[in-house]
From TrEMBL:
Functional description taken from the UniProt entry: Part of the tripartite ATP-independent periplasmic (TRAP) transport system.
Membrane topology: Multi-pass membrane protein
Protein name, UniProt field: TRAP transporter small permease protein
Keyword match Cell inner membrane: yes
Subunit structure: The complex comprises the extracytoplasmic solute receptor protein and the two transmembrane proteins.
Localization per Swiss-Prot or TrEMBL: Cell inner membrane
TM ranges: 21-41, 53-71, 92-114, 134-154
GO CC terms in record: plasma membrane
Similarity remark: Belongs to the TRAP transporter small permease family.
Keywords: Cell inner membrane, Cell membrane, Membrane, Plasmid, Sugar transport, Transmembrane, Transmembrane helix, Transport
This protein's record includes keyword DNA damage: no
Domain Tripartite ATP-independent periplasmic transporters DctQ component: 30-161
Matches recorded under InterPro entries: DctQ, TRAP_DctQ
Organism listed in the record: Azospirillum argentinense
Amino acid sequence: MRFLLRISGLIDAVNDGIGKLVYWLVLVAVIVSSANAVIRYSLHYSSNAWLELQWYLFSAVFLLCSGYTFLRNEHIRIDIVLGRFSRRVQCMVDIFGILFFLFPMAILIMWLSWPMFWDSFITKEMSSDAGGLIRWPVKILVPAGFFLLTMQAVSELIKRIAFLAGLIDQPGEKMHSHS
């Protein structure tokens, strides 16, 4: 189990690093959006590429931070109901949700989105809008984001099982193993 907890820690570190890096894309999106608005209204010039870049940046933040959000325990939950139960029951519900809902959904989306990305990459698909961007960079975000979410789900599953086995104190926070 200690080996699995080390793997969990590695997954946590990867998602934490990616999440903190991708945070900066929010600033980039704000700058792009602001510059686009200023140029559009002051110079009466607009480009579909700038609008699509904003969409790409939003997609990157949303998809690449899903694992980070799960790591930080900031995802949407049913805490009003679940909060009334013990931490052990909460962990069992989390394990059930990860195994029967999150894994199947995330793996299915990864599986189905990969051919769409690959086709876009091979054909060098471009936006149908005049001056638009190439499409494959945004399409790779879907399988990549769901891969990161799936990996974080593996980490969370390991931590919850370790908690139930009495090997760690709290699965949703920094781990402190019992030595």
